[in-house]
Specification:
Blueprint: H1 2-24, E1 40-46, E2 53-59, E3 66-71, E4 74-79, E5 81-83, E6 90-96, E7 104-110, E8 119-122, E9 130-136, H2 143-153, E10 161-164, H3 174-188, E11 193-196, H4 209-215, E12 228-232, E13 235-239, H5 251-263, H6 266-271, E14 274-278, H7 294-306, E15 311-314, E16 320-323, E17 326-327, E18 330-331, E19 337-341, E20 360-364, E21 369-376, E22 381-388, E23 393-400, E24 405-406, H8 415-436
Parallel strand pairs: 9-10, 10-11, 13-14, 14-15, 15-19
Antiparallel strand pairs: 1-2, 2-6, 3-4, 3-7, 5-6, 7-8, 9-21, 12-13, 16-19, 16-20, 17-18, 21-22, 22-23, 23-24
Helix pairs in contact: 2-3, 5-7
The chain binds fe (ii) ion (2 copies).
Residues 166, 198-200, 280, 316 line the site of one fe (ii) ion.
């Protein structure tokens, strides 16, 4: 009986003990860390203000966090924070401040004696008339994921990458995060990657702790790290968590409501005509693997409609789908358009709901790639293009101010469906050629 009691007690205490050890490991790095002080996994992170930029990196051995930068405003430096979590690396973050907008900044990070190479980025001017960015989801490190990374790294014009969750698929193996950041580093040192959490960021054991410490730290960002918004040229971007409570009355719901209401005010819309939500799970998906997250739709769709959200960029189902403007599964003239872009490299979910729901405008179930969005301040439009890793274009459309979505003019008798079919055919031919080699 006593053994049984002891076993029961152990069962009760064990999860508590491991949770506690993670919390204890949040700041102090152990002296037992050995190896190089050379910065690795260097990546920029957007700060609350455009004249600031956060830079984060890792080292094998513990040490200080220093950043030095220079711009037209002169030379400057700052000390940052160093911290650990349950992994054999030290992590560092430091904030560059007082940066001139829309200008190139050169910088380097280190511990004061060992430095990274000289790096550079261009600050975002939130009032610029032109802005380009890449959006991806469900990335990981497969061969296809690597091709998506290569596509992003070779893009010279994108000023930002958004990632709608399911990022590295570390799933408890922290070395996977190290490898993922190393692969993206040549992009991430020059443009910030802005994430939302997916179910794979809630890792077995540590939960969201690795995510929080690799993209930002509780020590510095005091707001709710899992839902936040950023004003970009022409676009108010809202990053939500489909992995935390979002029902009416929840902290996240209240925050989204207040944020969207402010972003949809007349003056805010004049400055930034578009509101885009980035979420991991989709409200609309006709993929048979996960499908529409009806709970998410029940909780938040009305908020999106009331505040005239233009576009929702989700992942989770590993395929590509664009809806018509849709509200409550009804196709409408003006309404939010939903995208699922879970094509960043993880195995495609090929089984689709049949027949295709009326609200589903276009879908692909076996391609991989990324999407590019271009805001033009003169026409007040966003041009969207879906790039497949074989170099072909899968889908494209233009978002117009006021929520009205108009397909591009087609100068032949095939119509839009015909063009899509042609593009699919081209992709299939391309795929066949690729396989033959
Ligand atoms: Fe995924
Ligand atoms: Fe997912």
């Amino acid at each position: 009986m006593r053994t049984l009691l002891a076993a029961l007690l152990l069962l009760l205490v064990a999860p508590l003990a491991s949770a506690q050890s993670f919390n204890e490991a949040l700041t102090e790095c152990p002296a037992t860390l050995t190896g190089s002080s050379q910065p690795e996994q260097i990546h920029l992170q957007l700060a609350d203000s455009h004249d600031e930029m956060m830079v984060m990196w890792a080292t094998e051995v513990r040490g200080d966090a220093e950043v030095e930068w220079s711009s037209s405003a002169g030379d400057a430096s700052a000390s940052g924070e160093s911290y650990c979590y349950n992994h054999d690396k030290a992590f560092h973050m430091a904030l560059m401040t007082g940066l001139p907008l829309g200008e190139e900044i050169s910088y380097r990070v280190g511990d004061g004696s060992t430095w990274s190479p000289e790096l550079s980025f261009t600050t975002i001017n939130p009032d610029a008339e032109h802005f380009e960015w890449i959006s991806i989801a469900d990335h990981g490190m497969s061969e296809e994921g690597q091709q998506v990374s290569d596509g992003i790294i070779s893009d010279q014009n994108a000023q930002l990458v958004t990632i709608s969750g399911d990022i590295s698929y570390a799933d408890g193996d922290q070395n996977v995060w190290d490898d993922w950041f190393e692969i993206q580093q040549s992009s991430m040192v020059s443009i910030p990657w802005v994430p939302t959490v997916g179910n794979h960021e809630n890792e077995p054991g540590p939960g969201f702790i690795p995510y929080e410490h690799r993209f930002d730290s509780d020590e510095v960002k005091e707001s709710e790290g899992f839902w936040y918004a950023r004003d970009m040229p022409g676009v108010h971007m809202v990053f939500i968590s489909s992995e935390h409570p979002f029902d009416e009355g929840s902290a996240q719901f209240n925050w989204i409501k207040a944020d969207l209401e402010a972003a949809n005010s007349e003056q805010a819309r004049e400055e930034r005509p578009f509101i885009i939500i980035f979420s991991h799970k989709p409200m609309y998906s006709s993929n048979s693997y996960h499908g529409s997250e009806v709970e998410l739709r029940d909780a938040l769709e009305a908020l999106y409609v009331e505040n005239e959200v233009d576009l929702i960029v989700a992942g989770h189902d590993h395929f590509y789908e664009r809806t018509h403007p849709v509200i409550s599964e009804q196709v409408v003239e003006n309404g939010p358009v939903h995208l699922v872009i879970g094509i960043g490299g993880r195995s495609a979910y090929e089984e689709l709901d049949e027949p295709q729901p009326e609200w589903s405008a276009y879908r692909e179930n076996s391609s991989y790639g990324w999407t590019r969005l271009v805001y033009d301040g003169e026409s007040r439009t966003i041009d969207f293009t879906h790039h497949r890793i074989d170099g072909s274009i899968g889908d494209s459309f233009t978002l117009y101010e006021g929520g009205e979505m108009v397909m591009p003019e087609v100068e032949n008798s095939l119509g839009i469906a015909g063009i899509n079919a042609l593009l699919t055919l081209t992709a299939l031919l391309g795929a066949a050629l690729f396989t033959d080699r």
